[in-house]
Amino acid sequence: MDYDIETLQNLLKEDPSNFQARRELSIMLVNQGFNEEAEGNLKYLIKYFPDDAELYYNLGIVQEKLKNFAQARIAYEKAIELSPQEDFYYNLGEVLVELKEWDDAISTFKKVLETDPDDGNCYFNLGLCYLKKEEKNLALDNFQKAVQINPKDIFAYFYLGYIYEEDGLTNFAIESYQKVLEISPDYSWAYFNLASIAYKSGNIEDAKNYLLKTVEYNPHDVQAYELLTKICLKEENVEEILEILHTQLDKEPNGDLYYCLARVYKFIGNLEEYYENLKKSLENPYTLTSFPKDIVKKEFKKAESQLGKEELPPPKEVEEYQEDDNHIEDTSSDIDEDVEEFEDEAEEGQVDSSDDEDLDEAMDYDAEESEDEISEDYQEYEDYENENSDFDESLEYNENEVEEDENIEE
User: Fold this and answer.
1) 68 and 46 in one domain?
2) Residue 323 pairs with which residues in a beta bridge?
């Protein structure tokens, strides 16, 4: 007879030793997301049935849902010790991926394939593990096997595209990303990577169209807005990018997007709006992650001085955060003492100022050296920046982002 949770709980109040009711309740609690309650019931049952592999397996599921991956590993390994089953091995493999134990995960998924050689999910996970170990050929083989078994595996196709793109096999990469979109037309990351390829190939119109698709399906994709801003300013299509940025910012404030908007107003010579959006950018420090905060602060102080909004002496001429056709670049029409100091550090081997891709390292904010330059009003932003100095300015998503959001669910 089927019972609901309340009925099972009442049965246990009358008879706490009703193990069958407690077992059924545990499974029901797991399925309905009451993980803490399920955990307590399963541990209670294990005390009385220490040789029941299914109890350890279900406890592993609960611990996994609670993000207690180390405990989930122990539970799954105990279940396997008592009864080595395919499902037990597979779940253990997924936990080992979460724990970044790549070699153990590979061994575990291979155990699954010994009994089920057509498990496409195992091949996908093997591909991921080998990619993390930087063994791209083995990763490629396993992702290809995954799509052969499951032609609708969008994540395997996406990773194939990523590997092909990394190896310079652009046509194969485009084919893989387009395959993703055939299966899932709203997969925004595929649009973004296609936009990146098109942009680097000089196909600006295609890049723009792919980016518009990206933000249509993922309106929180800051990188897409950044590249759209760059393209629209190159085309002097100011009205379009203003509408795009204002529309998104009306829905949700974002420090990075306010900075993009500030740069648009700087481009058209509207110093007041440039200043106001720099200010809003700094007022949203937790979403100001794609641009160096010290540069934004210095631009703000310079604009503030130019508009006469403070009585303090104007700061030194500052470098402005700009981009070239390859990556975001540190350039300025005013070469000042800050830039000279930066270049001196580069010559001494502290930074590589010749490589635009290393801007995130080159522009790391040193709170001690800049304390006199930045007002106390922005100390809270300094503290936040020091905790978040490593930011990704790449035009492409990296595999860590894909993994965290998508792959394990598959």
Assistant:
1) yes
2) 328
366/230 same-domain check:
yes
Could you give the residue ranges of the DSSP H alpha helices within 84-202? 86-98, 102-115, 120-132, 136-149, 154-166, 170-183, 188-200
Between 10 and 387, the higher pLDDT residue: 10
Quickly state the pLDDT bin for 334 (edges 50, 70, 90).
very low
pLDDT of residue 137: 95
Q: DSSP letter string over 271-327?
A: HHHHHHHHHHHHT-GGG--SS-HHHHHHHHHHHHHHTT---SPPPPP--EEEE-SSS
Residues 112 and 123 in one domain: no
Residue where a domain stops, chosen among 67, 84, 117: 117
Helix or strand holding residue 328 (H, E):
strand 328-331
CB 264 within 8 A of CB 233: yes
Q: Please write the tens of the pLDDT for every residue from 212-233.
A: 999 999 999 999 999 999 999 9
Could you write out the DSSP letters of every residue in 13-37? HH-TT-HHHHHHHHHHHHHTT-HHH
Span 128-166, pLDDT tens digits: 999 999 999 999 999 999 999 999 999 999 999 999 999
Looking at residue 87, its amino acid is: D
Q: What is the DSSP letter of 395?
A: S
Q: Both ends of the chain: CA-CA distance in Å?
A: 33
Tokens, residue 366: 């040193």
Q: Tell me, yes or no, whether 43 lies in a domain.
A: yes
Three-state helix/strand/coil letters over 59-106: HHHHHHHCCCHHHHHHHHHHHHHHCCCHHHHHHHHHHHHHCCCHHHHH
Above 90 in pLDDT, residue 12?
no
The pTM (predicted TM-score) of the whole model is: 0.70
Phi and psi at residue 153, to the nearest 5°: -80, 90
Q: Is residue 410 situated within a structural domain?
A: no
Number of domains in the chain: 3
User: In 3D, which of 183, 207, 205, 185 has the Cα closest to residue 194?
Assistant: 207
Is the domain of 168 the same as that of 224? no
Q: Are residues 286 and 395 in the same domain?
A: yes
Same structural domain, 177 and 236: no
